Amino acid sequence: MIAAGDIVIAAVYIVLIFIIGLWSGIRHRRKTRANAANGYFLAGKSLKWPAIGLALFATNISTVHLVSLAQSGFDSGLLNGNFEWMAAFTLILLALFFVPFYIKSGVATLPDFLEKRYDRACRDWLTVISLISAVVIHIAFSMLAGGIVLKTLFGIDMYTGVIVISIITAVYTIVGGLKAVVVTESIQTVVLVAGALIISWAAFQKVGGWQPMINVLTEENELSKLSMLRPSGDESGMPWYAVFLGYPVLGIWYWCADQTIVQRVLGAKDIDHARGGALFCGFIKVLPVFIFVLPGLLAFVLFKTGSLDLGSLKTVDAAGKEIVQSKGIYTVMITQLLPTGLVGVLVAALLSGLMSQISGALNSISTMISYDVYKRYKPEVNDAQLVKAGKVAAVIALVFSLLLLPLLNRYESIFNGLNDIIAHIAPPITCVFLLGIFWGKASAKSARLTLWLGSALGAIVFVLNKLMPDNPIAGIPFMMMAFYLFCVCVFMQVIFSFLFPVAHTKESRDFFWKHPLEPLRMKARRGLGDYRFLTMILVIVMVWLFYSFR
């Protein structure tokens, strides 16, 4: 439980975000047109690179990351930091190869883009998958992590706390549209990072510095926890080759082909701001390993030295052995390492992660329902009707997400559960997007069949592994499973493209690269704003980091 002063700080923060979200959204819509769909769903395509980068980061980093990355740091060290640093490379792909087509096409949704490159059936299928992933992955899992935090800190019922926060977030999101989402996400990113820095510094000071941490890990024979790239056969199930083979399959879908994430880019003022925002987010993604994952490792060190009391997290397994349930490690660190006042800031940071994830996903769901579903069946629909349909869809999605919480709570690790689901959803989507923009011979029928068959295969494998955990493929780590499914999808689409040759439309001819170097030859800002220069710096930084923590 936390002090009354900290509760007041957290409450004031929630109220301020609510007011700012409503004010910014309503003000923006008054400056444009009250019911203009473009202004509501895409902020009138007025977003600049700082807001885009901060919003991308905030939508990605939810309470799931704050809670689960600390949990993973306690359990396996810096290993899951790979998901953060590898994201920088996929953001480079987004900036260089995907953004030009997204901005050029003028689409409001990625399913719309897929129709321009392939056909209507591909658009419909991606809409369905994107809606499911937004509800399950972006909202429900975030609610679950937020509920755990609220229960641990305030002692209130998990579902009650989540419902209250969700309703507050939904109100300003539904009323204000994307402008409200991006403005609040920018603020939430700053608060979230500040809070994470505070707990990281407090834990680091309590340990005594880097060398004392090394000494404890050496004594406990746990020095491998500092390694990001593990050898083949590592008990974590995520050796170095799984990271480099499997993550791109998950990452390209998440960062380059998922509506909830990419919608911030679609609202960019122009291509330079879209690219700049994506690369800016890539630089920010350096931070999570040090401010989200490392605190969990520091908590492990403090626990081993007796400086952190985890009695509230201890339980007994089936064999009668005492174990630590590390799901609540982050909240225990907050209450034991920080003084009153700073605890309130950390609670605000945790709530920021929950609110930003929910707001971003609800806005994307609204956009897809309005443009990819409602407008399809009622082409004559006006802007006011589109906005109304989006608002109704957001409410329904929120209710459905809440109903999923008991089912998702069965996962021992929220982060692993999240990525387990993504590993079976992402492969066919990553495949059709990659081949679509890099291979002119990728046909519409091949993409359609790959999406259908690839998604069916992923669902069958997922269900089979859950119902029959002793089957031969159940032991394959999710990263490698994603890679194997992706290879099958690529094979299918290539074969189908030769069986059913491409017949390009006037639009589709413009949405694939004719030469691999073409993206690097585009006009760019001069000096430090040149996307090629920024890309080079980001690549150098990431390679150096991976080498340092290999």
From TrEMBL:
Domain of life per record: Bacteria
Coiled-coil ranges per UniProt: none
Intracellular or extracellular location(s): Membrane
Cited InterPro entries: Na/Glc_symporter_sf, Na/solute_symporter
Membrane topology according to the record: Multi-pass membrane protein
CDD domains: SLC5sbd_SGLT1-like (cd10329)
Residues spanning the membrane: 6-26, 47-71, 83-103, 124-150, 156-175, 187-204, 238-257, 278-303, 342-365, 386-409, 421-439, 451-468, 474-500, 531-549
Pfam families: SSF (PF00474)
UniProt-recorded name of the protein: Sodium:solute symporter
Originating organism: Terrimonas ginsenosidimutans
